[in-house]
Design brief:
Blueprint: E1 8-13, H1 24-31, E2 36-38, E3 55-57, H2 59-64, H3 71-86, E4 88-93, H4 102-114, E5 117-121, H5 127-134, E6 143-146, H6 147-150, E7 164-167, H7 172-182, E8 191-196, E9 204-209, E10 223-227, H8 236-246, H9 253-257, H10 264-279, H11 283-306, H12 312-325, H13 328-331, H14 339-356, H15 375-388, H16 397-411, H17 416-436, H18 441-465, H19 475-506
Parallel strand pairs: 1-4, 1-5, 2-3, 2-4, 6-7
Antiparallel strand pairs: 7-10, 8-9, 8-10
């Protein structure tokens, strides 16, 4: 509190229920003021406030503001304006001012900037009666959030390993927006509890699936949402705990022996297994393979911790800051008309980052393409980089003509060395053709190889059914089995697509 300016804002906690739960200090502050400013009049304690003291509420802000994220700033602005006019003001909020009260934090921050005094009188928090109604202890851990703070987010900033209590779920509209954010992390069938009017005689507990919370007919200004934790091990932090233990003296000898270099091959292998799952369009396999790849990331980070190099928080903060910095059209006011403009501006930002950090600007636009990339992917990336500075044909026709030209040079090449070089040029021109057709050459060839593998395995199977070995058969016989395998493969692929279609439709809500 800094009363030197003469202006003092007294913030009072009304508690979770009737006026009988008010503290003595709170009651004296409420009786000794000219006007009581309420965040909301929809609270059971309001009926028992000191008679004869005028009341001003902020309920009209809730009712008139379409953008729910703007509610608290508008409330805070009203309280600041009232204090500036009157010289002092009493602002009363439900529960305890220090528990999930965003408007209080905004008022305190603005008053601090102005050098005003702020006096906070604690109240009984809504948390205690809510947890009592749920029959749960606040310990060992509980996350508290304001529901309105999550409405503009697309992922909840909470750990799924720890229960969450969300305040201010005061309308079905808030519940509807809130569930969308939460369902980016929690299964839609996850059982959650709407807690209504905890701390009052009309307290009610309503368990239902997360996706249905906005269907409740009991939601009101005293409603909050309790989200139980997911099964143990469901968070990123839990994986870090597991990996750190594995590399500890009490852990696994093999894990302790690993280094950045010893895991290089494993990192590459796990990356290719993710690509294989993508090629197979197999979500279950992709889920598992992403986990294996994530393990490699966490292992490398833990090795860095053990070697005194860096910690995971620096990795996460670095990539988060980079994403925000390189998306000014999302997190700032910049307007970019197309994806191509985004890419161009991205390169401009990267160049500026290098300049400000003292890193020398690469002499070539191709410098950012890793030499360790597979050949097809590297070729496509190199050509895309060159195209950014105008080294590219404007249409696909001359690209195809170049392919035919390179094919002719392969056919007329004399000797193995020239054939080797000309064939490389042909492959490079085919990759460029693929890029102009908006086809990823690496993926296209990998899928084609997988298709060849599947078809040839059908040929081998058919040969075995004939009691023959492919190596004993003539080319004509193998060609006949190959044609049969193509038909079988095509029919199987069509049946698989037909089976997948109803499942995809069933998943649409």
């Amino acid at each position: 509190m800094n009363p030197g300016s003469g202006i003092v804002i007294t913030i009072v906690g009304l508690g979770p229920g009737e006026a009988g739960m008010l503290t003595r200090d709170a009651w004296e502050a409420l009786t000794g003021t000219a006007v009581i400013y309420l965040r909301t009049q929809r609270h059971p304690a309001v009926a028992g406030l000191p008679p004869g003291v005028p009341i001003q509420t902020c309920d009209d802000i809730y009712e008139d503001t379409a953008d729910l994220s703007a509610v608290y700033p508008l409330i805070a602005a009203r309280i600041i304006a009232a204090a500036e006019e009157a010289g002092s003001v009493v602002y009363a909020v439900p529960g305890d001012p220090h528990t999930a009260e965003a408007s209080v934090e905004l008022v305190r921050a603005e008053a601090g900037k102005r050098g005003w005094g702020v006096r906070v009188l604690p109240g009984v928090s809504f948390v205690q009666p809510v947890m009592a109604l749920l029959g749960r202890d606040v310990l060992p851990s509980l996350q508290l959030c304001d529901a309105l703070a999550l409405l503009d987010l697309h992922h909840p900033p909470v750990s799924p390993d720890v229960p969450v209590l969300l305040a201010q779920v005061y309308s079905r509209a808030v519940a509807s927006e809130l569930k969308l954010t939460l369902m980016n992390q929690y299964p839609e069938e996850h059982l959650v509890a709407l807690v209504h009017a905890a701390g009052t005689a009309s307290a009610q507990l309503e368990w239902q699936p997360l996706h249905a919370i906005d269907h409740s007919l009991h939601i009101g200004h005293l409603t909050c949402l309790f989200v139980p934790a997911l099964p143990v091990g469901s968070s990123f932090a839990a994986l870090e705990v597991t990996v750190a233990h594995l590399r500890s003296p009490a852990g696994c000898a093999w894990d302790r022996e690993q280094t950045h270099q010893s895991l290089r091959a494993t990192l590459l292998e796990e990356t290719y297994e993710v690509l294989a799952a993508l090629d197979a369009a197999d979500p279950d396999s992709l889920q598992e393979e992403l986990g294996d790849l994530l393990l490699q990331v966490v292992l490398h980070a833990q090795i860095a911790v053990d070697d005194g190099e860096f910690q995971m928080h620096a990795v996460l903060r670095g990539i988060n800051e980079k994403l925000v910095r390189r998306h000014p059209h999302v997190y700032g006011t910049l307007k970019l008309p197309s994806a191509e403009a985004v890419v161009q501006h991205w390169e401009t930002i990267k160049a500026e980052e290098r300049r400000t950090s003292g890193v020398s600007v690469p002499s070539s636009v191709l410098a950012g393409v890793p030499r360790a990339l597979p050949a097809l992917a590297q070729a496509q990336a190199l050509q895309a980089r060159a195209a950014r500075v105008g080294f590219d044909w404007p249409a696909v026709e001359p690209v195809l003509a170049k392919v035919m030209e390179e094919l002719g040079e392969v056919q007329s090449a004399a000797g193995e060395t020239q054939q080797f070089e000309e064939l490389g040029d042909l492959l490079l021109s085919v990759v460029n053709w693929a890029r102009h057709l908006k086809v990823d050459a690496e993926t296209a060839l990998r899928v084609a190889a997988a298709r060849f593998r599947a078809r040839f395995e059908l040929v081998e199977q058919a040969a075995r059914e004939l009691g023959r070995s492919p190596s004993e058969m003539t080319l004509a016989e193998l060609d006949a089995l190959w044609d049969q395998a193509k038909v079988t493969y095509r029919l199987a692929a069509a049946a698989e697509r037909d089976d997948a279609a109803p499942a995809a439709e069933a998943g649409v809500h």
